[in-house]
């Protein structure tokens, strides 16, 4: 029986709406346990660092249970569309997976993606048969262009990568969600489960986190916390929130209730 | 085996950190199902409205599974300490329960509690043997005074009752949590599970919600969502969040990673 | 001719809505120049520190142009109502001024005022003929009680003293402003002129700042900035702001405008 | 003598950092008075609506004192780069002014600009000798690309046009300001002077407002308020704000101050 609220990306369905990264963990055991606790079914890996044996990336692919997990190679570290396309092809050759989290990040300080370069790279990669999930700023017009180019999702940032500041550009993320025809995955900047829940409550289809787990005091406990937060936010979205009000509203309205006469009650 | 992270109030332990109200529901069946779905073990009831048969309160006590639930009578609708004390005694006589959520609310517009009247009533009720859980504004000095008076918890508001605006006075709620010697229960104004999660992440021991469930499109689904949100926030608090940063921080640091040479990869 | 928008406190009128403190300045010259630049007409001084010759307070009263300024002695450092009343009398004896900024602050960590003690001290001081301006948390019920006790204003905090975090408890400050019958002066926690402007836009009658000036890189420049910010906020309050909207609204609406035909324009 | 803190755009200097629009006013007299009160030296006009005689745009150019004001024609209503370029040329032919506020807005709902189309149009217009001020989302990477293309400023939005919600995407606007080599003008979404002050305090060089003035109850009073708010924010930026703190910090530190002995003061 199909899950009543599955997430479908490029024809594949997932019951988890939490995606996770693999960077910054103290060791691969902690990483694996955190991924297990998160319930994530999609896991992203920086291909350049795997290839180059960057610290913490050696043996990374072997540590992942790829029978159960959808691998999502990413192009972290790529500054131009050409570089991203080359690394994408390397990723496919190396892993046999044609899903790609596309990152074109020329900005060394804020690690922000390039809108024009990302669109160009996405067009090329879709043409090469990739399933492309591009990382973008919360720009609704760019998101529409990427959909038209054939991307499988759009992944707007909540706040700068690794900042843990949460859903700071809430109104702009909302413009990406509105009228989206592909799943919206909020990526980057989420620090605590309430941030993830907010994104889902707003109508995002999923979130991706990495630093919030890897840098928690207890990454495995935090992974479980995010799993619950994502489920909470999605359940709230489906249940339909109360209206927010400017004023107060009594939980137990008094309209029509006579004032109590001085009661004679036993002490 | 004791629960590893139980909440203890006045010597009683609870595994749930979500308390719920009973007002504003369309009917008692929905209320009961929502309470079940919330996993709440403490349920508050407005005694005056029960006594007076206010709309929606007739048969309310019978609808609650009091074998499983700790009843928490409240003094909603009381404007003065004397009135609150009289209703408290009525509550005890009526229910046999000596727990009391103390509300002294003289303000018809914002439904805000009276700090001086609440402290006076609390002192009287503690002297009468009640277990007192006072509803207050997020005032750390008043909270300390209520602790000294023997209250079992303090219950600061997040934003005005029924407003659903969330944890607006975050910094002030933090001053109540800091150095508290009794459990802090954030009460009033929470609209969505992320609001509840935020309170727990900040260090609150529990939350109480009513309108957010009763006025959701699907109260039972929202009750389940809040249950998950509270569990997420508590788990995150225990796991220790990552530091929030002003700037960005790469998930997969590039320090020490040589730039990739032009790779020859198969298309 | 009377100023068209004067602030009246206890029968005295002021054209400035910015009050300032005298603590933390590098030296008294900078303080005096900053006060001049601020345009403030009401200046608060910690009497205990003056009396005790605390660092930076020696000669402070002589440095103020008391012909032009309304002195507002305060009871900073007092932890109980009795202590505050004693210092108030000392202030009056020392300065000949019966205005008093009442601070009863038992909390060493957050420097938060005691609601119950503040009300008690206010009642005593009003009885002794003082013009009392009490420092409080943003508690609308307490504010009403202080008005009834005869206070000349209420002074709710924006965020903890010296934190510079701005108007964090905006909704609660609003509950103090609503229905107030005496001027509301937002005091403590304002860090930049936009914070002050926000308070005035919300309907506060005035603000008081100290640390934001004294700890600026250029206290005199910042004093001028706050003067402008307060004037901006007041002018906006009087002019009536546009409604905030969820969506967008074109500055130059297109409704009824035919689409332009391909224009033949000269290059 | 040159103004000590002038704003320079494309070699021209201005003493005002507040730019204004001309849409939505009840009539041209109110518009003119509001522009006067704002002190603005740069005024933007929707050329298509002028040309087409859209409601409120008839006679608009004649109503502006173009001896004193720098006219800034804009391409509001243009959905594609080609359309914007054509309207830009029309604007230059019609007004003799080669400054241009570039708007390429394909999105009918949120009125958000197209990053790719805006960059393409900017490149063409710079090549045609225009002084280009492009309206963009708060995207630091796009901003750098527009600088490299020869734009005279970048104009990131604070929140959607006409929403009056203020500086919602503060962190992202900051990424545009950081390292900018041309002036940054925050445009769209500012509702009250404190919003404008915040933008200047953050380091923006100027702001542009329209709806906030035109839809105020008193547009002329609000224009004066914004003028003051912008001056306040700029002055604060230059003066260097105090650090924001998590905790409190006494205005009049008690360190080293002996506790007052019981004073014997006259009543």
TrEMBL record, chains A, B, C, D:
<dbReference type="GO" id="GO:0005737">
    <property type="term" value="C:cytoplasm"/>
</dbReference>
<dbReference type="GO" id="GO:1990107">
    <property type="term" value="F:thiazole synthase activity"/>
</dbReference>
<keyword id="KW-0784">Thiamine biosynthesis</keyword>
<keyword id="KW-0704">Schiff base</keyword>
<feature type="domain" description="Thiazole synthase ThiG">
    <location>
        <begin position="8"/>
        <end position="253"/>
    </location>
</feature>
<keyword id="KW-0808">Transferase</keyword>
<comment type="subunit">
    <text>Homotetramer. Forms heterodimers with either ThiH or ThiS.</text>
</comment>
<comment type="similarity">
    <text>Belongs to the ThiG family.</text>
</comment>
<dbReference type="InterPro" id="IPR013785">
    <property type="entry name" value="Aldolase_TIM"/>
</dbReference>
<dbReference type="GO" id="GO:0009229">
    <property type="term" value="P:thiamine diphosphate biosynthetic process"/>
</dbReference>
<keyword id="KW-0963">Cytoplasm</keyword>
<feature type="binding site">
    <location>
        <position position="162"/>
    </location>
    <ligand>
        <name>1-deoxy-D-xylulose 5-phosphate</name>
    </ligand>
</feature>
<dbReference type="InterPro" id="IPR033983">
    <property type="entry name" value="Thiazole_synthase_ThiG"/>
</dbReference>
<feature type="active site" description="Schiff-base intermediate with DXP">
    <location>
        <position position="101"/>
    </location>
</feature>
<dbReference type="Pfam" id="PF05690">
    <property type="entry name" value="ThiG"/>
</dbReference>
<feature type="region of interest" description="Disordered">
    <location>
        <begin position="244"/>
        <end position="267"/>
    </location>
</feature>
<comment type="pathway">
    <text>Cofactor biosynthesis; thiamine diphosphate biosynthesis.</text>
</comment>
<dbReference type="InterPro" id="IPR008867">
    <property type="entry name" value="ThiG"/>
</dbReference>
<feature type="binding site">
    <location>
        <begin position="188"/>
        <end position="189"/>
    </location>
    <ligand>
        <name>1-deoxy-D-xylulose 5-phosphate</name>
    </ligand>
</feature>
<feature type="binding site">
    <location>
        <begin position="210"/>
        <end position="211"/>
    </location>
    <ligand>
        <name>1-deoxy-D-xylulose 5-phosphate</name>
    </ligand>
</feature>
<protein>
    <recommendedName>
        <fullName>Thiazole synthase</fullName>
        <ecNumber>2.8.1.10</ecNumber>
    </recommendedName>
</protein>
<comment type="function">
    <text>Catalyzes the rearrangement of 1-deoxy-D-xylulose 5-phosphate (DXP) to produce the thiazole phosphate moiety of thiamine. Sulfur is provided by the thiocarboxylate moiety of the carrier protein ThiS. In vitro, sulfur can be provided by H(2)S.</text>
</comment>
């Amino acid at each position: 029986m199909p899950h009543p609220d599955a997430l479908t990306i490029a024809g594949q369905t997932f019951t988890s709406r939490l995606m996770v990264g693999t960077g910054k963990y103290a060791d691969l055991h902690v990483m694996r346990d955190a991924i297990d606790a998160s319930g994530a079914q999609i896991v992203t890996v920086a291909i350049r660092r795997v290839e180059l044996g960057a610290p913490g990336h050696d043996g990374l692919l072997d540590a992942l249970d790829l029978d159960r997990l959808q691998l999502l190679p990413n192009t972290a570290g790529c500054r131009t569309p050409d570089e991203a396309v080359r690394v994408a092809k390397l990723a496919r050759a190396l892993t046999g997976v044609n899903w790609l989290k596309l990152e074109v990040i020329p900005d060394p300080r804020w690690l922000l993606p390039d809108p024009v370069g990302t669109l160009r790279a996405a067009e090329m990669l879709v043409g090469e048969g990739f399933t492309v999930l591009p990382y973008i700023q919360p720009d609704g017009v760019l998101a529409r262009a990427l959909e038209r180019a054939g991307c499988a999702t759009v992944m707007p940032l909540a706040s700068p990568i690794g900042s843990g500041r949460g859903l700071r550009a809430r109104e702009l993320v909302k413009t990406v969600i509105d009228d989206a025809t592909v799943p919206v995955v909020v990526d980057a900047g989420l620090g605590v489960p309430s941030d993830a829940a907010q994104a889902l409550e707003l109508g995002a289809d999923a979130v991706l986190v990495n630093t919030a787990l890897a840098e928690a005091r207890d990454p495995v406990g935090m992974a479980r916390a995010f799993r619950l937060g994502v489920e909470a936010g999605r359940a709230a979205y489906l249940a339909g929130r109360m209206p927010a009000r400017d004023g107060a509203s009594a939980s137990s309205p008094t309209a029509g209730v006579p004032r109590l006469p001085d009661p004679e009650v036993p002490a």
